[in-house]
Amino acid sequence: MRKFLTVVAFMVITVALFSGYSNYGIPQIEPAPPPVEEKLDLGSMTMDQFVALGGRLFEGKGTCTLCHNSLGRAPMLDQIGANAQERLDDPRYEGAAKDVEGYLIESLVEPSAFVVAGFGKAGSNDTESPMPSTSGGGIALSEPELAAVIAFLQDNGGLEITVEIPTDIGSETEEPDAAGSGEPRPAMTSFQELSDEFACEACHTIGEEAGDLGPNLSTIGASRDRDYIRRALLAPNADLAEGFDPDMMPADLGEQLYAGELELMVDYLSKLK
Amino acid sequence: MRLHIKLLTFAMALAVCGIGFLLLDVALMNMQGLSLIFHK
Amino acid sequence: MKSVSKFGLCGLFAILFLAMMLVLPGTDQFGSQVAAQEAASGDVAPAVTYEPAPKLTADDYPKVAGVNGRLAVWVCAQLHLWFAAFVLAVPIFVFIIEAIGIRTRDKRYDDMAYEFIKVSITAYSLTAILGGLLLFSLILFYPHVFTYLSTIFSGSMLYYALLFFAESAALYLYYYGWHWLQGGLRKWVHLTIGLMLNAIGTGLMLLANAWLTFMMSPAGVDPAGVFSGDEWAAIHNFLWNPINIHRFVANIAYGGSIVGAYAAFKFLTATSHQEKAHYDWMGYNANFIAICALLPLPFAGYYLAAEIYAYSQQMGITLMGGIFAWLFIIQAVLIGTLFLSANYYLWCGMGRSTGAKRYTGYMKYIAIVLVGAFLVWFTPHTLVLTNAELKALGGPHHSILGPLGIMPAKNTAVNVMIIFTFLSFLFYRRANKVATVSWEKTGNIIQVALFSAAIVNILFLGIYHGYYTNTVYKVAASIPQVLTTFFVIIISLILDSFIYRGSREIGPLRWGKIPERAQYALFLLAVSFTWLMGLMGYIRSGIRQHWHVVDIMRDASPDAFTPTLGYAANVVSVATIIFFVLVIFVFWIAQVSSSKTLPAGYWKE
After folding, report:
1. Most C CBs within 10 Å: which of A12, A13, A24, A29, as the mutation test of the C interface?
2. Which residues pair with C505 in a beta bridge?
3. Residue A31: what pLDDT?
4. Cβ separation of C333 and A189 shorter than 8 Å?
5. Domains and CATH numbers, chain A
6. Which of A254 and C401 is assigned the larger pLDDT?
7. Which uninterrupted H or E stretch holds C563?
8. A99 to chain B, minimum CA–CA distance in Å?
9. Cα–Cα dist C258/C596, whole Å
10. What is the arithmetic mean of pLDDT over A101-122?
11. φ/ψ (deg, to 5) at B6
12. How far, in Å, are A181, A186, A189, C223 from residue A137 at the CA level?
């Protein structure tokens, strides 16, 4: 019995030592509480306050400084004013943005649209960014919050602030989009939805729907690869199918679609065999 | 065994092992041995 | 021969482990691609429509009699996991020991295997009870989480239940049929049942792992949490295989350490010399199992962490550089304790042999190296916490300790630690033998050269690539480091077996002749393992932060915040103590079942 008690005491002391070390041997850091939706009073905000809000989001809820810091995990953003234009002019750039603001929004919402050389996921040859989309998922910046971050980045990078303080306070969407100018709309998640919205089947035959102004796409995946399909969606006049006229298909799908939606369409079409 | 034979054996074995390990290093570092395992 | 086959198994295990590391990630990536495509196509014409993940509010979490729901689920899950790990691990090495027994025809192995499984049988029912308690508390405190998960995993939950019955059947057959299925063909039937038991047990673990890794790296659902209908995609999510490997290896180490504690306790309370010898031998084998599985464990852990980074850089930084970074300092203390106590046990065990005197002088140097490596590992990591803390520290690195805090230094340290632990073991093996081959001295010199070259290589890789090349190479260098360690172990074992071929034993090993304090090293091993597992389990779960299912289902309960480390450590400590109370009960029951009381004059004659 004495041995049993010795063993028990030994074990309890061991556990107590571990516990004691964890409590007193290392600094006790009170982790930040989960992020809460900041009540935005945009109506009465000056641009300076809006930029300051962007700065808070940059360091806080946006978690940007986890990587965009001097450790070199991600590009520094203080030179963004000079860099953004350079990146738009980069021959590797294939995104949809036309100006610096558009580029910044695209980089926030669809980080893989353009990856700065050397910062891609290992092995992806700089085609895939390790950065998550800041509009969805874990970070979930709202539309006005994204605008505030852009304002902060522009201000911080020595640029003229081109974003406007959103006035539409009431309609904060859960999944904000903002892939450029135009009315914000929630991202679509199925091909059918997209096809309905952009009226693909008015001209094309896809499965059961029959249109004959454009090529039949029911088995497009068998003869064309993903790159071809993507190009055909973004620049319809680039390769014309035999017997069809140019300029029939809208050429601005690249501006209207979100990158995710574009890929969804490419995925779907390339699997039609 | 005399000391110098000992030392000679040691040096030779060390050289062989060292070259072996060096080859292993070079092979793995250059053939992107990493991306085999950590694919991302 | 006995030891050769044991080492054969150990080597095989190491090779299998490496092969798994090489093969699995590829399939993983393929799986996630399939999942993405399935998700896309699934949306077109879904056979069943699934709801998106619910957006919860604080009112969705029932308050029951003032019980803290998170704490209840946490403790239940942890206790269940400890027992499950033990119960899954024991049959793995019981199977191996039984096979060794069949091969060597040494009945001691068979008896020991039986004694191991006997210990686990009571633990088995406790595992089930605790699993039920976990399920109950999850439904009670987190009904929406459970509902959401069960819509996705309805199929696998059914299979889990079925497998559980099969597991029970196999386990009872294996245990109760032990003495019945002896000899010749019957023994093979028994061994086959053992194999099935292990297959089913591993299957159970894989399913449970799928559920929890889904919560960390969801797959088969769209960003709103709408399930695509493809359960396999959800099971085969990004972190599934990394966790599977890590848990499989860790379970074996853990099971070994708990059985070691059992043997240690029996040794301390043994009355006869024979009993002492038996439990000494059993403790030695349990420790051997624990250490064999402990050696690859840092690499499995490293692989898991790398995969977490690959899945989500944000999660990776939260894990290694953010609020959880200090936990790895605690982990370092624990792992240092594990290595030191395992080595200490080996050193004490050398007293069993008279020939050990030749090696005792080296022990203090091994101890010095181990402590040194431990201190490097212990040096804090890059601590990126909040911007305020960053400013206070004047940068992410401590100016002097910074260089020791980065990963290459730690990789180097852990490899050195493993090599020296192996050296301890090598000395232990040699302690009772005298080589008779003519080239013994040359062989020894080659061994020394091999170790020297390996250590130089590990240091070179760590220092050169860790400090003078770019980040990609820093990480990449850990691979040749690991392989160097494995090569040393394997080549050295092969060389050693040739040098000691036909060797002369100095005397019979005096089992039981080991100081009592060595047994406390076994207790320390078991307690440290348990506590460490609890801590790492907390980290694994905690890096989800305020999410039930990362980025898909938010935790809106008042307990969604991440607690301080001290608090987490206290919860783990209390759970550890509860666990050991239950374990002591299990051991006691195992003892009671074999003791008989003959009350005189009680029964009618």
Report:
1. A29
2. C433
3. 74
4. no
5. 42-156 (no CATH), 191-270 (1.10.760.10)
6. A254
7. none
8. 31
9. 26
10. 81
11. -55, -50
12. 22, 14, 15, 7
* CA-wise closest residue to C132 among C160, C152, C155: C160
Cβ-Cβ contacts under 8 Å, B6 against chain C? 441, 445
SS3 of C309-371? HHHCHHHHHHHHCCCCHHHHHHHHHHHHHHHHHHHHHHHHHHHHCHHHHHHHHHHHHHHHHHH
| Alpha carbon separation from C512 to C248, C340, C465 (Å, rounded) | 32, 22, 47
* pLDDT tens figures, B2-25: 888 888 888 988 899 888 888 888
In the chain, the amino acid numbered C598 is L
Question: How much is the average pLDDT of C164-184?
Answer: 90
Kindly tell me the sign of the dihedral angle through the C-alpha atoms of C9, C14, C20, C23: negative
Residue C451 has pLDDT above 50, yes or no: yes
All chains having 3 or more CB pairs closer than 8 angstroms to chain B: A, C
Residue A94: what pLDDT? 78
Q: Who's near C497: CB < 8 A, 6+ residues apart?
A: C4, C7
Q: Please identify among residues 24-63 of chain C the ones whose CB lies closer than 8 Å to any CB of chain B.
A: 25-26, 28-29
Number of neighbouring beta carbons within 10 Å of residue A72? 12
A209: Cβ–Cβ under 8 A, 6 or more apart, which residues?
A201
| Residue A126 forms contact with B (CB below 8 Å) | no
C139 sits in which H/E element: helix C107-141
DSSP string, C400-412: TTHHHHSHHHHHH
Dihedral of CA atoms A258, A264, A270, A273 in degrees, nearest 10, equals: -140
The DSSP symbol for C59 reads G
Interface probe with A: pick from B31, B37, B40, most Cβ of A within 10 Å: B40
Report the alpha-carbon distance of residue C253 to residue C20 in Å, rounded.
Answer: 18
Chain A contact set for C566 (CB, 8 A) = 22-24, 28
A266: tokens are: 């490419």
What is the pLDDT, as a whole number, of residue C506?
80
Q: pLDDT digit string (tens) for C498-554?
A: 888 888 888 777 888 888 888 999 999 999 999 999 998 998 888 888 888 888 888
Closest-CA residue of A relative to C527 is A11
CA A40, A41, A47, A53 dihedral sign is negative
pLDDT band (50, 70, 90) for residue C387:
very low
Distances in whole angstroms, Cα of residue A197 to Cα of each of A43, A171, A178, A253, C148: 33, 22, 17, 11, 31
Nearest CA in chain C to B28: C480
Question: CA C175 to CA C117: how far, in whole Å?
Answer: 7
C401/C377 Cα distance (integer angstroms): 11
Taking the CA of residue A19 as centre, how many other CA atoms within 13 Å lie in the half-sphere pointing to its CB? 20
> Helix-strand-coil percent breakdown of chain B, rounded to 5?
80, 0, 20
CA distance A66 to A60: 10
State the average pLDDT over residues C230-240: 88
Q: Please provide the distance, in angstroms rounded to a whole number, between the alpha carbons at the two ends of chain C.
A: 54
Query: Once rounded to an integer, what is the mean pLDDT over residues B17-40?
Result: 67
Tokens of residue C76, six digits: 């239940």
